[in-house]
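Good morning,

Attaching, inline, the backbone tokens for the sequence recovery test we're adding to the shared suite. The designed sequence is right after.
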């Protein structure tokens, strides 16, 4: 009576979900440490960089950031803004965050807007006129929004040509569940399109096509990225630790989602078999039929072998791609 297949279905499911749940807990713990311990990089109103000209977003996406003679001068450059300036007011109203600053500029292309900045302890007034420019649409996390075809979406907004510095801001623990949910949704999107992503990885590995930095990677790729972060001399030790904690959290969340796929030999496949057994035996009881007994997963061995072969092939391809054309952060 103590053999595994004789246990109640709910007990077997609890046992089989032990691994994925542990991955979820570890991922949640890492995100809690990352958000509430290290904090998340939040843009400030301090200017980090001033563009000399306005480069079309399509050219920037293609890696062409050099100014051309026909490119208009960036409004911030024309107004004399410099790296290190702290924007304190826009159009006579104080600004306390980067979001406030951009909100007062985005919809005012072509209008002359007075701004006040602090520079080396002095208050400096300037005026700039935003240029209507095509910019990528960003979500709340700062990631580019893509359309159904996978291409990034653009919108016409007022642009002045500055980028902000960022500083870590600790988030409350109440922000952790939302961050975990967002991470799971992003990973689920990758898993749902895994065949296409694997094809793209193979195409990049055996051709001159670029490697998608947001695509799947193997354990070799994870190790390489960890090594890049640890070896980079310009990254502070605190930021290195935060990046590695975030990487460990992402890996655990990815393992949680992947292991729940209803395919043997994954945990999700065993759970699906147990649920099918419960459904079959429950239906038999309702219809007054003979108990069909426990479900024998050996019947699915051909499917298990096929999935195992596909997983091994996928792992080999990802490892090869991470060796010959790795995803690089720097």
């Amino acid at each position: 009576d103590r053999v595994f297949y004789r246990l109640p279905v709910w007990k077997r499911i609890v046992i089989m979900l032990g691994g994925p749940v542990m991955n979820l807990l570890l991922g949640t713990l890492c995100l809690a440490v990352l958000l509430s311990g290290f904090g998340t990089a939040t843009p400030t109103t301090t200017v980090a960089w001033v563009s000399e000209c306005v480069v079309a977003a399509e050219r920037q996406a293609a890696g062409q950031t050099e100014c051309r003679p026909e490119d208009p001068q960036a409004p911030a450059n024309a107004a004399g803004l410099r790296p290190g300036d702290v924007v304190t007011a826009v159009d006579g109203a104080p600004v306390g965050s980067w979001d406030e600053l951009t909100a007062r500029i985005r919809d005012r292309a072509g209008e002359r807007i007075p701004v006040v900045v602090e520079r080396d302890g002095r208050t400096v007034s300037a005026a700039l006129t935003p240029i209507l420019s095509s910019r990528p649409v960003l979500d709340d996390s700062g990631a580019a929004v893509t359309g159904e075809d996978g291409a990034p979406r653009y919108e016409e907004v007022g642009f002045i040509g500055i980028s902000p510095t960022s500083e870590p801001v600790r988030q409350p623990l109440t922000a952790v569940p939302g961050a975990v949910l967002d991470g799971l949704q992003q990973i689920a999107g990758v898993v749902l399109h895994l065949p296409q992503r694997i094809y793209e990885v193979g195409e990049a590995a055996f051709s001159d096509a670029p490697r998608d930095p947001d695509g799947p990677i193997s354990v070799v790729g994870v190790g390489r990225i960890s090594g890049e972060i640890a070896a980079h001399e310009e990254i502070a030790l605190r930021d290195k630790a935060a990046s590695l904690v975030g990487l460990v959290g992402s890996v655990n969340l990815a393992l949680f989602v992947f292991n729940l796929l209803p395919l043997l030999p994954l945990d999700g496949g065993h759970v699906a078999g147990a649920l099918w057994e419960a459904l079959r035996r429950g239906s038999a009881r309702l219809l007054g039929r003979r108990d069909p007994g426990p479900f024998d997963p050996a019947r699915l061995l051909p499917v298990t072998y096929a999935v195992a072969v596909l997983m091994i092939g996928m792992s080999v391809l990802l490892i090869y791609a991470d060796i010959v054309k790795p995803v690089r952060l720097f």
